[in-house]
Amino acid sequence: MADYNARIAPFINIVFYVTSAWWEQPRNHRGIDLSTGGNDPLYSMCNGFVYYKGYDATGYGNYLIMKDSTTGMGFLYGHLKDPTPLNQGDTVVIGQQVGIEGTTGHSTGNHLHLEMQDISQHEWQYQAPKEVYTNPADFMGIPNVEGISVYYDGTPIPPTPTEDIKHKFPWFLYHRKRRLNFRTWQIDNFVLYNNYTFTQRRKLLWKILLISL
User: Fold this and answer.
1) Which H or E element spans position 100?
2) Which of 9, 134, 168, 192 is most buried, judging by how many CB atoms fall within 10 Å of its CB?
3) What are 76's strand-pairing partners?
4) CA 45 – CA 155 distance, rounded (Å)
5) Predicted model pTM
6) Buried b or exposed e, range 20-50, using 16+ CB within 10 angstroms
7) pLDDT in tens, 179-209
């Protein structure tokens, strides 16, 4: 039995382990390393397309990047045993096999190196600073802790909403409040208007004009 059940993961129906945590120090580990200890299938965690595929002899080995068509989130899978059979631009869906766990490139054993970036507004950035990346452990719904065991049954669970989720601004409420504040300000200052000098009256009229715009 695993320590944690993931809400979504690149392995399905098999226990895997976090062998290196995301942003592990002192090397600023930009991804999270996950391993079953063998050469097991890797599955997509997004509905989107293959953004890029390639080979990096001194780093990722065989790798691919997928992009979610809705959120723009990018997923980099590194150290695949073989090049993915998919091509750039091919469609992927959650739960679709996209490769096999391996140890190509700069690697000491079979595992998946997983990185995530929001690439909705920019291209994928290699060796980027921490703020560019998304914590894969948070996305999977597990602790970012080396050594834990994890299981995912293949049924994705929607993420829990957080305070970072942006909502549309209620402009109609803002406009209504602004009008009410303006009316109150008008009444409060009307009483004083007759006692103002010419210069003070002119300044007050300019304030009323600017607020009403």
Assistant:
1) strand 97-100
2) 9
3) 65, 115
4) 11
5) 0.76
6) bbbeeeeeebbbbbbbbeeebebbbbbbbeb
7) 545 454 454 555 455 556 667 666 666 665 5
